[in-house]
Amino acid sequence: MSHRPERIAEAIKKEVADLICQEVKDPRVGFVTITGVEVTRDLSYAKIFVSVMGSEEQRQETLQALQKVAGFLRSEVGRRIKVRHAPELIFKLDTSLDHGTRIMKLLHEVNKQEESSTNE
Questions:
Q1: Engineered SS bond to 94: which of 22, 49, 80, 114, CB 3.0-4.6 Å?
Q2: Rounded-to-integer distance, Cα 89 and Cα 28, Å
Q3: How far are the Cα atoms of 30, 64, 81 from residue 70, in angstroms, in the given order?
Q4: Is 34 in contact with 16 (CB distance < 8 Å)?
Q5: Is the model's pTM score more than 0.85?
Q6: In a domain, 113, yes or no
Q7: Residue 54 lies in a domain
Q8: Residue 31: which CATH number?
Q9: What is the pLDDT along the chain (120 residues), one digit of tens a residue?
């Protein structure tokens, strides 16, 4: 079994992160973190999972801005990692960090309630 898709995914992750920081000037692209990249086995598509700080509206605007510059990012990624056909980039919002934060808050509340009930 080939490890090429994983290597390509890591290279795409690095290059897209660099490009977003250095080349993308759209003000809608705020604080973006690339949390992961999944590449199809035939290397034709790359799902890029991003975490965006801000409100739901800001997240959606950032996602739209990223989709708008996806063609530019795709051509630059293809040039930088030297593949014959650069995969089509699809940006997806990663909400796992939000989910983890929510769980931590809930656990904290449960601990507070347990402490207050044992102190009574």
A1: 49
A2: 18
A3: 16, 10, 16
A4: yes
A5: no
A6: no
A7: yes
A8: 3.30.300.20
A9: 568 888 999 999 999 999 988 888 877 777 888 999 999 988 899 999 998 887 888 888 889 989 998 999 999 999 998 888 889 999 998 877 777 778 888 888 888 888 877 766
